[in-house]
Amino acid sequence: MCGFTGFLSRSTPDVTALHAMGDSIIHRGPDEEGYYTDDHCAIAHRRLSIIDLAHGHQPMTSPDGRYILAYNGEVYNFQTLRTQLQELGHTFQTTSDTEVVLHGYMEWGAEVTGKLRGMFAFVIWDTQTKTLYGARDPFGIKPFYYAPMGDTFFFGSELKSFLPHPDFKKELNREALKFYLTFQYSALDESFFKGVFRLLPGHHFTYRDGKLDMSAYYTFSFEPDSKSLEEHAQEIREVVTESVEAHQISDVEVGAFLSGGIDSSVITALSHPDKTYSVGFANKGFDETSEAKALCEELGLKNISKTITAEEFFDILPTIQYYADEPNANLSTVPLYFLSKLAAQDVKVVLSGEGSDELFGGYITYHTTKPYRAYRKLPLPIRKAVAGVVSKLPPFHGQGFLTKAAKPVEDTFVGQAFIFDNDEVEQVLTPAYRSSRTWKDITAPYFARVKDADDLTKMQYLDLHLWQPLDILRKADRMTMANSLELRVPYLDREVWKVARSIPSNQKMRGKSTTKFPLRQAAVPMLPDDWIKRPKVGFPVPFIAWLKEEKYYNWAKDLINQDYVAEFFDQKYLLDLLEQHYSGKARTHRKLYTVLSFLIWYQVYFPEACGVAPYQPK
């Protein structure tokens, strides 16, 4: 695992700026640094050595000197591709997957990207045509930012790496704040920094003479078949087993993250690592480390765990926002940081269970009751008529059911987080940060691509394109890389996806709350019965309780009362939310954490506007 950054310029590249850019992502690769410059191109690379430790240096130059590669990721079928390339006459100097990517581009051009099985983001500079080619893996496991600014074109693994360059114009993207408050993550293609964009998952581009050409090389489609539940369970068992084996290719020790849920438990049971890692909190109901230890005892594995204190949680928040690049309001990001720090004391690589919920239908929000599904089969005009009548009646049990069921899923589902609705956003934001656009403007293009699908498929499709890459995978990459740790996600594999997309929706749910049923059936030979039935928990964080403690209530109040906050928010509205939570009148902790996370992030990246000292990364 590595990180890269760089820029194209019409003038001779600023080498001093390039080195500062590379230093800003040293956490992504502390083992080695490398640089390339010519009259127009400058690339910095930081390496975390995983495969072929003595070789695989980057940026890597092709044998004829024409192509320069900077690459971040792991390609798990590189040995197969290497054999194919050797049969075509290519010779190799290393055993690294980096060299395979480079020779693959020499042989197949941009088509090589579609042949790669793994997680990756990379650029290749063609010194003859003066063309930059860039690509990102289909799921968006590895990050890629780019920014055209005047005569300079920036590119890199992390947005923060652009900041040291004198040509980079640091400016807040005002429109991003509104949608962040709804989604809890930066939901636009343009980042929180104006002019800086994310390369979308499954996309690649060329940049030449100031012209950017971008397109998708991979798209997701659900293709349910007629196989039985038992057949699908067997296919899942086989393909996940093979994927875990492929994801263990490494010249260093590989560990595993382990919670009490089925996703990481399956990965752990199949990989059988020497060490597993878990974290939790002392608060009752917020600790799964005992469950993780129990499973490890059953499997004969070593489990290393840590209990996170409230003081540690609040102290680390500026560090979290620094490494996140953009505001991050997912509470589980913090325990993931501590989990990564714990594992990095022993290993360089860990396996984890991200992606299972999106592929196999694991979120409880996907689940509907039999009465709900039956009611949804009534014609939409009838449901709307019923909803219109009941909405005018005094509140009664089931009123919300009838109102929600009257609406298409496109009007109610935004993903796995819905923090502020449109009306609330307009109330809490100052006029300069409001917008006529709503969250539906973000979700509608995705729903349109699956307009004829069932509701569950629509929700999965949206989460595959928004929630998964913009929240789940972004925090996973940033928090592990902040600790120089490579995270591998065996569920997010193109072969696993081929099986997952073939499972019909009516097989995915059971009973009142059982999700991803085919995966649970696939796990029967691997895990104890009680693990197979365990509900999804994730990384529960007791922020809801802490914010009712005077110490942290005052912390939040002091932050909201800072002068710079009035630029963005109605401070009285925020203080009212805080009082409602503190007094027990309402649960507003998610709304508050979303706002507070932005305020901390703004202090970190715009200290001059907040009147605070520049943040120094830990």
Automatic annotation (TrEMBL):
<comment type="similarity">
    <text>Belongs to the asparagine synthetase family.</text>
</comment>
<dbReference type="InterPro" id="IPR017932">
    <property type="entry name" value="GATase_2_dom"/>
</dbReference>
<dbReference type="InterPro" id="IPR006426">
    <property type="entry name" value="Asn_synth_AEB"/>
</dbReference>
<dbReference type="GO" id="GO:0006529">
    <property type="term" value="P:asparagine biosynthetic process"/>
</dbReference>
<keyword id="KW-0315">Glutamine amidotransferase</keyword>
<feature type="site" description="Important for beta-aspartyl-AMP intermediate formation">
    <location>
        <position position="354"/>
    </location>
</feature>
<comment type="pathway">
    <text>Amino-acid biosynthesis; L-asparagine biosynthesis; L-asparagine from L-aspartate (L-Gln route): step 1/1.</text>
</comment>
<feature type="binding site">
    <location>
        <position position="97"/>
    </location>
    <ligand>
        <name>L-glutamine</name>
    </ligand>
</feature>
<dbReference type="GO" id="GO:0005524">
    <property type="term" value="F:ATP binding"/>
</dbReference>
<feature type="binding site">
    <location>
        <position position="279"/>
    </location>
    <ligand>
        <name>ATP</name>
    </ligand>
</feature>
<keyword id="KW-0028">Amino-acid biosynthesis</keyword>
<keyword id="KW-0061">Asparagine biosynthesis</keyword>
<protein>
    <recommendedName>
        <fullName>asparagine synthase (glutamine-hydrolyzing)</fullName>
        <ecNumber>6.3.5.4</ecNumber>
    </recommendedName>
</protein>
<dbReference type="InterPro" id="IPR014729">
    <property type="entry name" value="Rossmann-like_a/b/a_fold"/>
</dbReference>
<keyword id="KW-0067">ATP-binding</keyword>
<feature type="active site" description="For GATase activity">
    <location>
        <position position="2"/>
    </location>
</feature>
<keyword id="KW-0436">Ligase</keyword>
<dbReference type="InterPro" id="IPR051786">
    <property type="entry name" value="ASN_synthetase/amidase"/>
</dbReference>
<dbReference type="Pfam" id="PF00733">
    <property type="entry name" value="Asn_synthase"/>
</dbReference>
<dbReference type="GO" id="GO:0004066">
    <property type="term" value="F:asparagine synthase (glutamine-hydrolyzing) activity"/>
</dbReference>
<feature type="binding site">
    <location>
        <begin position="352"/>
        <end position="353"/>
    </location>
    <ligand>
        <name>ATP</name>
    </ligand>
</feature>
<keyword id="KW-0547">Nucleotide-binding</keyword>
<dbReference type="InterPro" id="IPR001962">
    <property type="entry name" value="Asn_synthase"/>
</dbReference>
<dbReference type="InterPro" id="IPR033738">
    <property type="entry name" value="AsnB_N"/>
</dbReference>
<dbReference type="InterPro" id="IPR029055">
    <property type="entry name" value="Ntn_hydrolases_N"/>
</dbReference>
<dbReference type="GO" id="GO:0005829">
    <property type="term" value="C:cytosol"/>
</dbReference>
<feature type="domain" description="Glutamine amidotransferase type-2">
    <location>
        <begin position="2"/>
        <end position="210"/>
    </location>
</feature>
<dbReference type="Pfam" id="PF13537">
    <property type="entry name" value="GATase_7"/>
</dbReference>
